[in-house]
């Protein structure tokens, strides 16, 4: 593929369905040559934001621009933007080749691109099979093939690794790195936070329609750590931590503490008589930890931990 | 627009239901022609009368109802498997998509109508020949009926696209369109012919020269159908342009 460049700019993007605000005053940029991870819970507004960017949903306010223009104003949209939204969008009775040929024809792209992208996503041997018989992973590969047909400078990918097996995820990871390395701008949403942490240069975190973080991933994790503590009287320790307005989560008999060092925690345990201390360690915060803190959800999966954050 | 037109043709050609409906059109054309001829077999009526010829060749009208189905599926079906997103990613100006589909299904309707007309003509020709008669192909009753059936099939293809654009959910659109055309309109027309002869399905009976009383003159029927098709298309385009594609 030749080197392609592109960029995304959203300003005060807002979408209201009825009386419900789904995306609220969201602004961000996705510069050329970067992968920007887009993270949020189901219903947080990721997909709606991406669909506004792609001209599928009309913003209630604000602008979403690709290479300085609205999607519907692009002269050759498929050559400028590739997108994965809600699977391949293929008729189940069509073959993979037919599906891509229809897209290529509608976009005025040469049909040789169909074979090229089928080869790229390793679906060549299944090209004549009906899409209705595809596995979820094959459908995702087909969706990626559709996004890459026009060799675009901007890629908007909603959950591109959804349904892929571990080798498939690794393949997508390498592909996205390669595409960004060619100067393309990638906006990638995923529920697999650890996967985004592997590839993203920047991270957008959206919660209840509002952007709560827009920062390089490195900066997001700098200075963040969690202290794990097991002691004889965790209740007393928890009360002491609350009193100091520190964020603490109980996980089994372990307290997870943010905002204090291991030394400060150990000294506090001794001071309040919560000892003896059985376990005390400080570990770097993961992307998941930071995400759940910013998005206001428990550090661990729901049901496994009780969020005891001080209000 | 040329790219979009070719893409739509490729899509329609690759969709199995297009061909199943075309095969069904042949079957309906044959059965629709034989049924009135069988019914007339025991009667002492003249098989060569204009009335009897029109009644027989009217079997070709079966193509219209099936192309209505094809049009609804062709438009509303885009929203069933998420194809609408892909279509509008390639062509963000959605009115162009509806416009191209209108032209394609107008042509597909004419093709269905032509196939049904050929099936009906061949069936009638065989039936007449088996009774030592020749189907008078030179008679206006024959070719005006057949031309009418082809024209109605073409217009019903466009109506299907318009209904699909307005409803955008294939099953409700199909059930609604078929219920209205097959049950509601005939019932209303039977109840008050002079009032309900303006309905599109009833107007199409006049255009395809069905021998029946109280129908509109052909010119008026044609105007009614074209007017309704235009209004339905305008509403459909507005809906498709305006509404968000969320799935």
UniProtKB/TrEMBL annotation, chain A:
ABC transporter domain boundaries: 8-233
Pfam families: ABC_tran
Alphabetized InterPro entries for the sequence: AAA+_ATPase, ABC_transporter-like_ATP-bd, ABC_transporter-like_CS, P-loop_NTPase
Keywords: ATP-binding, Nucleotide-binding, Transport
A molecular function GO annotation: ATP binding
SUPFAM superfamilies listed in its UniProt record: P-loop containing nucleoside triphosphate hydrolases
Alphabetized PANTHER family for the sequence: ABC TRANSPORTER, ATP-BINDING PROTEIN
Family to which this protein belongs: Belongs to the ABC transporter superfamily.
Annotated protein name in UniProt: ABC transporter ATP-binding protein
Organism expressing this protein natively: Wenjunlia vitaminophila (Streptomyces vitaminophilus)
Native organism taxonomy: Bacteria, Bacillati, Actinomycetota, Actinomycetes, Kitasatosporales
Automatic annotation (TrEMBL), chain B:
Native source organism of the sequence: Wenjunlia vitaminophila (Streptomyces vitaminophilus)
Keywords: Membrane, Transmembrane, Transmembrane helix
Domain of life: Bacteria
Keyword hit for Transferase: no
Regions that span the bilayer: 20-40, 60-81, 102-128, 140-167, 174-196, 216-237
Designated name of the protein: ABC transporter permease
């Amino acid at each position: 593929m030749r080197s392609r460049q592109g960029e995304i700019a959203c300003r005060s993007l807002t979408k209201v369905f009825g009386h419900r605000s789904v995306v609220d005053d969201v602004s961000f940029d996705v510069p050329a040559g970067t992968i920007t991870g887009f993270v949020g819970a189901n219903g947080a507004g990721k997909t709606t934001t991406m669909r506004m960017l792609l001209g599928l949903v009309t913003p209630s306010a604000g602008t979403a621009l690709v290479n300085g223009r609205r999607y519907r104003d692009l002269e050759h949209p498929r050559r400028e933007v590739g997108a994965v939204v809600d699977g391949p969008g293929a008729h189940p009775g069509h073959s993979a080749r037919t599906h891509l040929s229809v897209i290529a024809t509608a976009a005025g792209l040469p049909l040789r691109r169909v074979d090229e992208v089928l080869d790229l996503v390793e679906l060549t041997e299944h090209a004549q099979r009906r899409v209705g018989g595809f596995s979820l992973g094959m459908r995702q590969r087909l969706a990626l093939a559709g996004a890459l047909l026009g060799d675009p400078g901007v890629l908007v990918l909603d959950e591109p690794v959804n349904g892929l097996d571990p080798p498939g995820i690794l393949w997508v990871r390498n592909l996205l790195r390669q595409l960004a390395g060619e100067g393309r701008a990638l906006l990638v949403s995923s529920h697999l936070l650890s996967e985004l942490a592997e590839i993203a240069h920047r991270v957008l975190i959206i919660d209840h329609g509002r952007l709560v973080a827009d920062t390089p991933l490195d900066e997001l994790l700098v200075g963040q750590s969690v202290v794990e503590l097991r002691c004889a009287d965790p209740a007393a320790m928890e009360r002491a931590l609350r009193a100091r307005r520190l964020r603490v989560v109980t996980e089994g008999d372990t307290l997870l503490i943010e905002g204090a060092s291991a030394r400060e925690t150990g000294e506090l345990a001794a001071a309040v008589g919560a000892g003896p201390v059985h376990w005390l360690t400080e570990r770097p915060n993961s992307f998941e930890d930071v995400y759940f803190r910013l998005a206001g959800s428990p550090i661990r999966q729901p049901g496994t931990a009780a969020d005891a954050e001080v209000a | 627009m040329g790219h979009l037109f070719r893409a739509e043709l490729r899509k329609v050609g690759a969709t199995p239901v297009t061909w199943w409906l075309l095969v069904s059109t042949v079957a309906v054309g044959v059965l629709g022609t034989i049924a009135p001829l069988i019914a007339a077999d025991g009667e002492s009526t003249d098989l060569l009368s204009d009335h009897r010829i029109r009644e027989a060749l009217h079997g070709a009208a079966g193509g219209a109802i099936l192309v209505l189905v094809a049009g609804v599926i062709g438009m509303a079906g885009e929203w069933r498997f998420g194809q609408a997103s892909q279509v509008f990613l390639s062509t963000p100006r959605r009115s162009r998509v509806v416009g191209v589909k209108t032209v394609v299904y107008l042509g597909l309707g004419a093709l269905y109508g032509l196939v049904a007309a050929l099936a009906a003509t061949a069936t009638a020709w065989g039936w007449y020949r088996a009774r030592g008669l020749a189907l008078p192909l030179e008679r206006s009753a024959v070719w005006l009926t057949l031309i009418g059936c082809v024209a109605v099939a073409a217009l019903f293809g466009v109506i299907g696209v318009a209904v699909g654009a307005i409803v955008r959910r294939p099953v409700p659109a199909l059930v609604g369109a078929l219920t209205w055309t097959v049950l509601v309109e005939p019932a209303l027309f039977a109840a008050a012919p002079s009032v309900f002869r303006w309905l599109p399905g009833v107007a199409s009976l006049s255009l395809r020269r069905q021998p029946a009383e109280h129908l509109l003159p052909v010119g008026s029927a044609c105007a009614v159908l074209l007017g309704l098709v235009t209004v339905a298309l305008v509403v459909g385009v507005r809906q498709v342009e305006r509404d968000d594609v969320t799935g």
